[in-house]
Amino acid sequence: MSASQLAFGSSLYASDCLPGCTHSAVCIARLIACSLINHKNKTKETNEGEAMTGFLLVWTSPSSFFRLPPFMAAAKLQCRVALSLHSHPFSRRVSSINPSMLPQTSPPLFLSSLTPPHLFLTSHRHFSSVNQRSAGFSKYWKRTKPFTAHLNNKDNDANPTEQSSGDVNLDSTAPVTTPNSKPTPTTTRHKKHSKTNSKKQQSSTSVEEAAQAKTSSSTKTKTKPKELLDASASTKPQPNKKTRKPTGKPKAIKTVKVSPDKQQQHKPMHKSKPFRQGSLKPLYPPTAKSVVVVESVTKAKVIQGYLGPMFEVLPSYGHVRDLAARSGSVRPDDDFSMVWEVPSPAWTHLKTIKVALNGAENLVLASDPDREGEAIAWHIIEMLQQQDALHQGVTVARVVFHEITEQSIKNALQAPREIDLNLVHAYLARRALDYLIGFNISPLLWRKLPGCQSAGRVQSAALSLICDREMEIDEFTPQEYWTIDVELYIMETGSSVNARLTHFDFNKLNQLSVRSHTEARDIEQKINVASFLVAGAKESKMRRNPPTPYITSTLQQDAANKLHFSSMYTMKLAQKLYEGVQLSDGKTTGLITYIRTDGLHISGEAVKEIHSLVIERYGQDFASDSPRKYFKKVKNAQEAHEAVRPTNVRMLPSMLANVLDEDSLKLYTLIWSRTVACQMEPATIEQIQVDIGNANGSITLRSACSGVGFLGYQIVYEDKEAGAIKNKESEVNDHNEAFGILKSLKPGDPFNLSEVKLKQHFTQPPPRYSEGTLVKKLEELGIGRPSTYASTLKVLQDRNYVTVKNRVLNPEFRGRMVSAFLSQHFTEVTDYSFTADMETELDNVSAGLTEWKGLLRDYWTRFSSYCSHAESVHIHQVEKMLEKTFGDFLFGSLPDDSRTCPSCLEGTLIFKYMLDIYGDDEDEETPQNNSVEEPKLLGVHPVSTEKVLLKNGPYGFYLQLGEDRKGYTPKRASVSHIKDVDNITLEDALELLRYPVTLGNHPKDGHPIILKLAKVGFAVRHRRTIASVPKNMKPDNVSLEKALELLSGDDVRRSGRPKRKPKVEEVVEAM
User: Fold this and answer.
1) Residues annotated as catalytic (active site), given as ranges
2) Which domain does 465 fall in, by range?
3) What is the value of pTM for the model shown?
4) pLDDT tens, residue by residue, 855-891
5) Where would I find the Toprim domain in this sequence (predicted)?
6) Domain annotation covers residue 358
7) Could you tell me the sign of the dihedral formed by the alpha carbons of 775, 776, 780, 781, in that order?
8) In a domain, 1020, yes or no
9) Which residue among 994, 1028, 1046 closes a domain?
10) pLDDT tens for each residue of 989-1036
């Protein structure tokens, strides 16, 4: 027997449990070890001694010690036998044993019908199935790791007594000394224990007995044992094989280690970190092989070209795992533990990373510099640790960069850091919070509001904004008012001046002063008989400061207002510009900095480069004297990253005309112009205001005009050579003839009356939100974050809660019902201030100021009570609430308040989620309930004379050639990608209906190559291979040769179902 095993037995004996205790596996092993130590100097002639030696040699090995707990029932019997056989010498040697605890049954009665102990405790006897073997491994292996670490310690043989003080402990909550943690102070064990320790022993004993009984029960009934989930468990698809012959060492189900919070509180449940610890050294210039993990393939290709062969850059394809998409993935009753699910493709990507780590010394995690990026890096480390892919020599480092350029990447590698657990905790809190809200409210919506799909934390607040604005529009009552404009001409020059009536009868007029046409006509008559002259003039100058650089929200707003891009489309284009494009010289580089930001600052080097460019192109007068600094003034700004700007400001938009497609070029031009303008001098606006009155001053007309005195930053938007987009401000503020005329007038100059114009107006309701204005409102209120705006708007549209018509957001009635229900029963979810305050709390978690589980616990306490109350509400109560809320909107057009059915004149209209008739038993169709949107006739085809129709289907608008009739399949073309379908002409329709067009046959296989109209433009197709046609290329210019070139390029995709079906795997939850 080795010194390591003796030290192991000594450490068990020195533990705080009494040697006579027979209720736990720990005590069993402790007793057997002590018994063996007592007899180590005697000859091993008896079968019992051989059995004891074999038992300890087998069950104290690192590879098989985990088997002990599942056999607690059998081991208890073995322990009683050992005590009975060796009671006298054992009790003499061990002074603390209580003889009364020894079993009174004689050994012959125990051993008369029993197999020898070392044969009784076989390795697989009590595993009735593979699942139970795996369950036993997963459940108990982590708890026994301190034992194996003790046995494998090389210092045990040299000095076995140093390890006998109690370092080995199976309690999962006890601290353990690791190579990188502070040593835990040890205490001397005494024979007499306090009352507290006695209570703890009794509690521990009862728990272990319960676990023993449960294990025995599951073994006898051959049922799957109950799950034991850590705070962060993952699931992996496994073959659904119920039984198999146990061969070799039990194979473990791959489980992910617990969350960072658990890692800090329950260190014994993990191995000590296998990768290298300590201060991180610069990774560039390279001294050894490094594996760099980024999020996308495009980014990986670009960075690989910068770093060379010493670095292997691999993509993770986004998140490698996520919360399991089912109920119970976040468990508030289990300290908010989470169940993670790993998609099948992610295992392949992780395997690629694992293979690449062979022979590497560094693992560099270079995901995006935000919470999601930090979470991706954390998930990758957890999964690689699970697969034992991080050996002792691997150094794990986290690097961040805000632009994909060669210098930025190398600078980041020179300043590596560790994972920021505060950001990870903020991610976990946000993810858990959104999950709890969504998975608790959504089922209620399904039951209480049939047809409504889901609700979420940010999307519900955004939907409430849209629906509240719609309610204001419904309740708005327009008011009539009139304006009076007068055209005057100067007799000396013959020039005309337009002026508006501002004072009448010595009183200043406001917007609603003239309310009727009669009042306007009375004023007109008095103006016609009056003579006018210049009463006074006022000139002023105003400085208009340059705009701030773009952040995520303002970029989406400007793209929506100026380019008519949706938020999601804007982010898609910006992501491509950030990840990198191939330039005309063959080099690939990122064109803009990181796009998800709310910071307005720009690096000092970039400011100097902008200042230099402005002087070169526009002159010293247009460059700002000192660098302009901008600060965020909206709520909850983090400002962790730079503003969105070009990585190289000298890359003019005109240089990328043949590199980028049309929409990407427009977006880059916006970013370039705004970035250059933000560091220039303000524009000077000259304003002039002339008052014109009658003789006694009772009537006053006012004419005003403005012009640009100094262009300042606006010269950037006039730079056609750079390819800039002209700004509307510059168009309005141009010098014009009217400005010069007004400036030449002097007090007392007479005018002749030319014409009096009366105009009728009505006050307008508040406008509906566009995507740009809604993003601006969300930003002002502090709801959501830059990375969530686009996805929030997309979810609202995908759920059919909101539709986009004429570039504004119109709430559907389904969305309004959801918003009303949430406002009634979940006030906090739709409350703007609460949602904004929650964002602040999540930011505090990122800064380490708030404990994330405490935040979840506080919110869940209130939210669960809302769910319980809403669950008890009957569906009829919901209907009454909705009828009360929307009654005026639904039935306001009826002539009286009786709600009599306008069709049969007998029934009564009530609210039943759709308009229904109460009291009308006949199932008669009426024009009111049978109305559908009629197809729009655009014209007639000039050749076939078939009608060209614009129709609306379940997937959007489409064109159709000919009417539906039996035996005829009309040709159709989708126009869902066209934003303004109402303006489609017959010529447009004929052009779209002529596709698809066969360009010719492929020279290799003879199959046709087709030019067709896709969802977002045109594409060419050969069998299952599809390539998009660049947006700056007209479809008429696509020839067979050009199509072959596109199909052989990199931007191709496959369509259709693959020939071999993917393997169907059952998701087995980790134990």
Assistant:
1) 594
2) 429-476+770-873
3) 0.60
4) 999 999 888 888 888 888 887 787 778 777 776 665 5
5) 289-404
6) yes
7) negative
8) yes
9) 994
10) 888 888 888 888 888 888 899 888 776 678 888 888 888 888 778 787
